[in-house]
Prior knowledge:
Phosphoenolpyruvate Carboxykinase, domain 2; Phosphoenolpyruvate Carboxykinase, domain 3; eight-stranded mixed sheet; 13 helices
Amino acid sequence: MNYLSEVNELISNHANLKENIDRKQMIKEAVENKECVVSKNGALATWTPTESTGRSPKNTFIVENSVSKNIDWNSPNNIALKQELFNEIFKEAIKLLKEKNTLYVTDRVLGADAEFALPVKTITDKALHSLFVDNMFRAIPKNINESIFTGKEFNLLVLPYNKLDSEKFKELPSEIKTMAVAIDFENRIGIVFGSAYLGSVKKLMFTAMNYYLPEKGILPLHCSANEGINESALLLGLSGTGKTTLSADKNRALLGDDEHGWSDKGIFNFENGCYAKLIDLKKEKEPEIFEAIMHKADYLNHGAIIENAMIYPSLEFDFFDSRFTPNSRGSYLLSCLENIKKSSVSGHPKTILFLTADANGVLPPVSRLNAEQAMLWFLMGYTSKLAGTETGIVEPKSTFSRFFGEPFMPRNPNDYIKLFGEKLKKFNSKVYLINTGWSGGIFGIGKRIDLKQTRAMVNACLNGSIEKSKFNKNELFHLEFPETIEGVDSNILNPVNTWKDKNEFNSRAKKLAEEFSNHFDKAYGSKNIPKEIELQCPGK
């Protein structure tokens, strides 16, 4: 099948094609089409059907074809889709798009460095989704012809409110047969069918970048990045670890808060905007995010999209009401933030921070990692799920998400580990593990480490003053931690000091170390991970 020919024919022959229209026009049509409402402050508010208030990992597929040897099919997030079935979904998408009264076509790129920018053409029947692409992806640079992806444009078809015929697509490898978020790396085609969640568009394209870039010697990273004076830093962490909060620093310019690439030139943001969680958002705690979405402006000039948050008849938001979903989101331009680096590119990172929220209360709040340890913790991507956040969780549950972004890192693990190790060695980046979780006991008994203390530890890593301290070794977790840091209560730096019952601490620590070891064996035991990295795994 000639996918590109089909896409070009769709665009050429459609009677009402709106191609790269003005941003204000996108906003105007999204409101007129009743795809959203204008809130009191001018931001756009929208709500998706209940089946798509978040990503749909069990309905997200990778097409089996020539790329299959590069995909880690043992990863639970890499679900194979037969080429023939993808072809049928593609035909259905083209057929329905041809029948739409209006089509919106948006040409953008992913990647702030033009040399590595991936062009993407998004075709959808919804103005709001076109606006989301305008928020999140970047304008085409003048020198795009210099890109390594020249002539390799990616095409994305988005039908958020259409459903597949469950009988016709009964072979779809999921319980829900009406939805598919599918990506064909070989033919450079993505389809979002039946998922209205805006994040499905964003994450499909970042998965594409995370697949293509390693082949070019570029390491993709699910991280935030900022820049101080003549140095940059990366912050990697899963949801709830403080990545967005800690990367927002009045003394450091933000490059981006979610996805970056690390080339031999330095680091570059993939995005043009941010897509932040809004649940329990407070102006006092997250002033920049709050201002980005809640500043008052005429709706045609505002452009922030607030997705699935509670709103009252007064058109005011309540970010503390999670009855519809705890996954309310805000999409806004990076330019809405005060302290950003407009180019979104920087030199090689001097400091890399891995963030974890250990609800077991047994990891040091800050640890120094050597290269092998850094590769191990990068591979494991550890944090905790908390009691009460999901049905059936009654105590902290360990979560491992490879490279701090497992659903979006489709390749075999050594493809990412090898690049990471090479770049650490070549550019002499320092790596630290920051535990933003609990101290003095598990969640429900201990207390979360104070944000001011965490910021002091982060600053010590960034400015290098942490290296002035004497370090002690935690043998169970193979971690070195400092005895003192300016502005930090030294008692908390060794977590055992904060527990009343030392035996209970040791028991909980051994339990977590065993979970690390068991997960490593299950996920990576057959993946030929270098032995020197394996030996840094807790419990080994």
